[in-house]
Amino acid sequence: MKITEHIQNATSTLFSFEILPPLKGENMKALFSNIDPLMEFKPPFIDVTYHREEYVYKTHENGLLEKRTTRKRPGTVGICAAIQNHYKVDTVPHLICGGFTKEETENALIDLHFLGIDNVLALRGDCVKSEQRFIPEADGHHYASELIGQIVEMNNGSYLDKEQVYNSGTDFCIGVAGYPEKHFEAPNLKSDLRWLKKKIEMGADYIVTQMFFDNRKYFDFVNLCRSEGINVPIIPGLKPFTTKTQLNVLPSLFHIEIPYDLADAVENCRDNKAAAQIGVEWAIQQSKELIAFGVPCLHYYSMGKSETVRKVAEQLF
Ligand code: FAD
Fold first, then answer.
1. Which residue has its alpha carbon closest to ligand 1 atom 19?
2. E-only strand ranges, the chain
3. Distance 45 CA to ligand 1 centre (A)
4. Name one GO cellular component term (predicted).
5. pLDDT in tens, 95-148
6. 0.95 surpassed by complex ipTM
7. What CA–CA distance (Å, rounded) separates 25 from 27?
8. What's the CATH code of the domain at 162?
9. Overall number of domains in the chain
């Protein structure tokens, strides 16, 4: 079922979460043991992130430079299918532009359709670590809006190499990323919103936000979106703190601010256990305020650890 249908049918705020594929070599048991504790809160859908390849360079004795690719967390599509089979819950695989030609994207979408997956989160992806800026494949997409264009064309029956229009039945619901504190490459929030609007005009159905710790940023973002004519559901993404080091790691990875009061409280914690407790309390307060605001769904970033998300959900769902 589509995420937009889940939202339309909901009688109260929905609970959902995002997981990462396990590191290569780990098994599905570990993944399921992270999902199991969250199932009693009846998530209508679970997101699974996509992790693109990294380049590894090795200089041989003869001086030749070998360039290899490696992926630390493969398996997004398989995990989505496994979750849908095991838990009978919809999944949202993240699909990125980086590393994909248009044909590879088309094939990935065909796989998802055959596996009974109705939703995708369409993203550009970040640049690989060894590159300064995002470089698409020669025949790939530069921006998420172009990827959305391809998904919509396929929903309408058009494939890359055929003039004929098919009736193969794909009808993906398309989610996109939104940034209450602006995307880090955007010169300002207004121009970022212009491109967000383009993603909706191209056919995206809903927005999921980057994590934020100050609800005012989300409220302002929603108001700005509405005033720019962006009227699709905007699902807030929340991340309960789990460690003290996240005080520095989260801002540097996700280009977000931690409010002074929260940062101060976490800094003064003697250990990670105490920091996680502060994180849970903060996320509960944020969630309560967002529910009162009328958000359609609260979406939690578990980042491979469900314990704190469970503690938050226990108080709300
Ligand atoms: P876009 O919407 O394409 O925007 C990228 C930048 O280009 C923005 O600064 C935008 O303002 C600008 N822009 C857009 N269109 C144009 C245009 N036509 N002309 C000029 N400028 C333009 N990454 C992963 O690799 N895997 C994941 O699973 C993943 N999941 C995510 C989930 C969520 C909810 C979020 C918020 C992010 C996720 N990311 C993931 C990170 C995301 O891929 C990066 O933030 C990436 O840098 C931007 O992706 P985007 O889809 O927002 O890009």
1. 195
2. 14-19, 45-48, 54-59, 65-70, 90-96, 119-123, 173-178, 206-211, 234-238, 297-301
3. 21
4. cytosol
5. 999 999 999 999 999 999 999 999 999 999 999 888 889 999 999 999 999 999
6. yes
7. 6
8. 3.20.20.220
9. 1
